[in-house]
Amino acid sequence: MPSTIPQPVVAPLTRAAMFLVVTVNAGPAAETAVRGLCGDLAGLLRAIGFRDLEGRLSCIMAFSSDAWDRLFGTPRPTELHPFKEIRGVHHAVATPGDILFHIRATRMDLCFELAAQIMSRLDGAISTADEVHGFQYFDDRDLLGFVDGTENPVDQAAVDATLIGEEDPAFAGGSYVIVQKYLHDLAAWSAVPVEQQEKIVGRTKLSDIELDDATKPTYAHNALTIIEEGGVEVKIVRANMPFGEVGKGEFGTYFIGYCRTPQRIEQMLENMFVGKPPGNYDRLLDVSRAVTGTLFFVPTATFLEDVAPGAATPSTASATSTEGESAAPSEPQPSEPDGSLGIGSLKKEAGPE
After folding, report:
1. Is 212 a catalytic residue?
2. Which candidate in 98, 130, 148, 168 is catalytic?
3. Spatial contact of 134 and 242, defined as CB atoms under 8 Å apart
4. pTM
5. What value does the CA radius of gyration of the chain take, rounded to a whole number of Å?
6. Tell me: the pLDDT tens digits for 130-179?
7. pLDDT (tens digit per residue) in 266-281
């Protein structure tokens, strides 16, 4: 049997990205249109990506808890649930969203063309909840002036951090993703002395060197976002991008984090917004406000390829035999992504067209 192919969640960072969050309109026709796109997404990627093979066009399609139930029924990923709103010193809001399209390329025109084709295919079936166009800002810095994503795992460590394994065998090779759109008060941030900015972030601003433990405050962003399990630090993969509209005076960072369990990111957010201990919160939130928050599941590319446009039925993963009990999977474990588009092999390794 062919291997299960993950979606390219660990694809390298690119100069451009689009984040498109949509809701599925009511009615079976809308749901059929979305299911129809699942199987055709790889073809759209091939057609548009072929125009510039060095453009590294990729797209991840992910689904919320409610959307999964509407579109695919059972079984469902073990840890898929709505985004958990957090009220602490600051507020992490939960906002609507059924499907996330995370589109990446070295050129924005490739991202734009794919998004336009997706929206055309889904015309009348979906409504746009949020759309953000991200760009690389100098040497991978955010608009606050600090390098973003320095501690991202790479290679096999990134795969281990993001792809589900034997803990949920029916959905092995899938991943979870949480997105949040942060708006920055750049005027307020600019008024903070650089030395204090560095303590808030936990790194030097110019050289991007992590502060030592004797210098770094416990409220530093990179101190609060370290998560350990059994005394060992566990990672997520961030694909954050700056965005902004100068005329509107709107500037921000689009946070997007992939992980094999959403509990890791949820714990990070709890530490940031409530504090660790409570009250010792992330001071970045004094100048950065979260205006969206949604959790999605990223099924494998193989799963998307096998989706039938008709009514929701048990997915191609192992069927649930009884309440809370899943049959053993019949597919092998996912192969390691190679950093490519991940689209040439979606036809079950059928060979060239």
Report:
1. no
2. 148
3. yes
4. 0.87
5. 20
6. 999 999 999 999 999 999 988 899 999 999 999 999 999 999 999 999 99
7. 999 999 999 999 999 9
